[in-house]
Amino acid sequence: MLTALQKKKPPTLRRFSKMTKQMTKLDFVTVGDIERIAGHPKHVITRAIDRHGPLPAGRAGIVRIWSRDQLPEILASIERTRRKPKIEAAHKILL
After folding, report:
1. Where are the alpha helices (DSSP H) in the chain?
2. CB 78 within 8 Å of CB 44
3. Distances from the Cα of 45 to the Cαs of 5, 22, 67, in angstroms?
4. CA distance linking residue 95 with residue 86, whole number of Å
5. Separation of alpha carbons 92 and 95, rounded Å
6. What value does the mean pLDDT take over residues 78-92?
């Protein structure tokens, strides 16, 4: 005689396609997504977000997530961070 767990069918491809459609509707980005969009290294992005960027919309475990609406502000903060020349910063230290 089969138990209730053995009678249960495994998830079909149809169920997985519904799940992926629902997941694509989410309008959230992580640091990894921003890295792919902006084309800058991850450490530059995290520094820019920590220094100038918007607060995350939420968290998924330890991962910070932002809404896609915040993406222009995040990209602007990356450019603001990368625009500062290092020579100017070194010159301020010497004075």
Report:
1. 4-7, 13-24, 31-38, 42-51, 71-83, 86-94
2. yes
3. 46, 28, 16
4. 15
5. 5
6. 67
User: Which domains are present in the chain?
Assistant: 26-94 (1.10.1660.10)
Residue type, 23: M
Per residue in 28-82, pLDDT (tens digit) is: 899 999 999 889 999 999 999 999 889 999 898 899 999 999 999 999 999 888 7
| Through-space distance between the first and last CA atoms of the chain, rounded to whole angstroms | 85
Q: What angle do CA 4, 5, 9 make, to 5 degrees?
A: 105
Token readout for 89 is 């910063």
From 80, 88, 95, select the one nearest 40 (Cα to Cα): 80
